[in-house]
Amino acid sequence: MTHYETIIGLEVHAQLLTESKMFCGCSADYADAAPNTHVCPVCMALPGVLPVINRAAVEKTIMAGLALNCTIAEEAVFARKNYHYADLPKGYQISQYELPFCRDGWIEVEAKVEAEVEAEAEAKRVGITRAHLEEDTGKLVHAGAHSLVDLNRAGVPLLEIVTEPDLRSPEEAHAYLTRLQQILRYLGVSSADMERGAMRCEANVSVRPVGVGEFGTKVEVKNLNSFKAVRQSLEYEVARQIALLEAGERVVQVTMGWDEANGRTVVQRTKESSADYRYFPEPDLPPLVVERAWVDAIAARLPELPDAKAARFVAEMGLDPREVAVLVADRAVANYFEAVVSAVRNPVSSRNRVSKYAPKTVANWITGELFRLMNAAGVGIDAVQITPAAFAELLALVDAGTINVNSARRALDGMFESGRRASDLVAELGLAQVSDAEALAGVVAEVLNRYPAEVASYRDGNEKLFGWLMGQVMRATRGKGNPAVVRELLDRALNVQR
After folding, report:
1. What is the CATH number of domain 437-495?
2. DSSP H helical segments within 247-377, as ranges?
3. Which of 271, 308, 325, 483 is most open to solvent, judged by the fewest CB atoms within 10 Å of its CB?
4. What pLDDT sits at residue 484?
5. What's the burial of 254, exposed, middle or buried (CB within 10 Å: 0-12/13-18/19+)?
6. CB 47 within 8 A of CB 55
């Protein structure tokens, strides 16, 4: 059987977070609005109206282009892209064609490479052909035998990002989309939420025999609205094309849709070319001159991007790259982590100072215990009531020996639910750790007297029982015994007769 190579290029549409639409003053925040309430003569394409360019949308496009390492054009031109759908009121879309805002960029993704033992990740550079600005279409709502048109979305600013055909597997496509979504969210230019339609993907996929230079016939898979849909549709389409070629048939250039219910791609129409859209410059909008000073001012506002932040966390804080990847996946989580570390390192009181291993400690508590609570509640970091200073106080109580880790978890549960301070909850719930050696020695003696058979077995060489006896002592102290003190006392008592 012939071995085939997969060739994938992606086109991603991301709605930009602006207050108004691309060419009119209608609110772009239409998510919970009744149908056709965020409309005006411009976005409804009534006769005699004229578009006006949204400056904020242009700035966000340039910001995204800079983050994607694109060349920013000195002059950009809007064009009319002509096609006829029921949810496109003008009968054309104002987009860009020959002169987009951003072109010739790239981003790096972690691509999985199968090794003999396990999958390893290596950096792969994916070329960005162009990133241009256009307006979104309306939306069709299918109700029985009828299709209803909602124009609330029509005219919302849309950033289209087109890759080179550099991706070689559905896994690489998934990695690219994940990284792109992360960058757009870090920039704050788009929510990039695929499930809510704020980011949509179209894939161009073909296969060719390994070693052949010429690309195979590409097929476009349209309107993929989840990461799962992207991966599954590409896997199916690659298998479909290989099966055709193996059977001696040819792949036809068509546009396919993804039938998620049946797990297969289905033909929607023959594939259009650029000539079918009859592009020509938008006569109602002049060319837009992009001054260097404007681009420089936008560049100065770029936040620290995920890769740079991850590298800094590893270099400055000594964290493992794998735990750093979890922390920087969400900009808000990364900022919260840094704020807790800062509060630990620069406490209001010296009593709140945590050990020199603070970044590692903070990372473990956030990705472990705090994520546990967030996942159970189904909320993001923005909904967490625990301030970074309050989190630092909790860790300081652990570090000082005032409470142990189990008690700290109980206190954190209460802090998450109420937003109260750790010290108040420790006092109210009686969580303070018992470190008094004399009091704990009595508990140890009581436990050893209660389990003479286990003690004898330990002294005969069954050392695994030490942990079990340790657990009985901690249970007797209701989890408040200082583990270090308990361990020392138990070891002394058990080994006195050995």
Report:
1. 1.10.10.410
2. 292-300, 306-317, 321-328, 331-345, 358-365, 371-377
3. 308
4. 81
5. middle
6. no
Buried b (16+ CB within 10 A) or exposed e, 97-114: bebbbbbebebebbbbee
Residue 12 makes CB contacts below 8 A (sequence gap 6+) with: 160, 161, 162, 177, 180, 199, 200, 201, 202
| pLDDT, tens only, 104-146 | 999 999 876 544 445 556 789 999 999 999 999 999 998 889 9
How far is C-alpha 493 from the geometric centre of its chain's CA atoms? 53
Angle between helices 388-399 and 331-345 (to 10 degrees): 50
* Alpha helix positions (H), 51-200: 55-67, 170-187
204: β partners: 9, 220
125, 213, 248 from 158: Cα distances, Å:
24, 34, 41
**pLDDT over 70 (residue 74):** yes
Residue 259 pLDDT: 92
* Bridge partners for 157 per DSSP: 135
pLDDT of residue 115: 42
* 123, 137 Cβ separation under 8 angstroms: no
Cβ proximity of 268 and 222 under 8 Å: yes
**Residue 24 in tokens:** 């009119």
Mean predicted confidence (pLDDT) in 367-371: 96
Nearest to 366 by CA among 356, 354, 375: 375
What is the residue extent of each domain of the chain?
4-298, 306-429, 437-495
Identity of the amino acid at 464: K
Please give the backbone phi and psi of residue 261, each rounded to the nearest 5 degrees, phi first.
Answer: -60, -40
The residue count of the chain comes to 498
- Name the nearest CA neighbour of 363 among 336, 330, 385: 336
Of the candidates 192, 125, 191, 135, the residue with the CA atom closest to the CA atom of residue 164: 125
Contact 298, 267 (CB under 8 A): no
The one-character DSSP state at 205 is: E
Which tokens belong to 236? 């199916």
Q: Which of 26, 17, 21 is nearest to 63 (CA)?
A: 17
- d(CA 478, CA 471) in angstroms, rounded, equals 10
- Residue keyed to tokens 């000073």: 293
What does the pLDDT look like over 169-203, one tens digit per residue? Answer: 999 999 999 999 999 999 999 999 998 889 999 99
Which residues touch 82 (CB under 8 Å, ≥6 apart)?
91, 92, 277, 278, 279
Q: How many CA atoms lie within 13 A of 24 on its CB side?
A: 22
Task: Give the chain's radius of gyration (CA, Å).
Answer: 30
The model's pTM is: 0.85
Looking at residue 117, its pLDDT comes to: 43
Strand residues in 136-177 grouped as ranges (E): 139-143, 146-150, 157-163
Q: Which helix (H) or strand (E) holds 119?
A: strand 119-135
pLDDT at residue 113 in the model: 53
